[in-house]
Design brief:
Layout lengths: L1 H20 L21 E12 L5 E9 L6 E4 L3 H6 L4 E9 L19 E3 L2 E6 L4
Parallel strand pairs: 3-5
Antiparallel strand pairs: 1-2, 1-4, 2-3, 4-5, 4-6
Length: 134
């Protein structure tokens, strides 16, 4: 039963990351548009487990699952290097940074209720709080 639950959870996370990763990222020649200072998201501190997931295009994304301290239980991790996330897979971490909710303009949730669109946390600091997730 535990293996079935883990498999379903992993599949759900991978599906969510695939949908989230399909948003077009800015290219290096095209800097990301910064919202005006008054509209920047407030910083949040969230604790959870780092999970590696494959996107639908074959890429890798990192997820904060079993999140506590925020408005969601799952976040897509951004702002740090892939190397830092891969070193922290299966560890419990505390991350701090602004949270970006998925935009409603690109939100497929209305058309497909099975699509999960987790918020993105742009990580500015990472602290390992446990060497494994329980």
């Amino acid at each position: 039963m535990r293996r079935l639950t883990s498999t379903i959870t992993a599949f759900t996370l991978a599906s969510a990351v695939g949908v989230f990763a399909q948003q077009q990222a800015p290219t290096p020649a095209e800097p990301a548009a910064q919202p005006p200072p008054a509209e920047q998201a407030p910083k949040s501190t969230v604790t959870g487990c780092v999970v590696q997931a494959k996107t639908t295009d074959g890429g890798t994304a990192y997820i904060l699952s079993k999140a506590e301290g925020g408005s969601a239980t799952v976040y897509v991790l951004g702002g740090s290097s892939q190397t830092e996330w891969s070193a922290n897979v299966s560890k419990k971490v505390e991350v701090t940074g602004p949270v970006q909710e998925p935009s409603s303009a690109n939100n497929d949730s209305a058309a497909n209720p099975k699509v999960l669109r987790p918020p993105l946390i742009v990580v500015e600091s990472v602290k390992v709080v446990a060497q494994n997730c329980q």
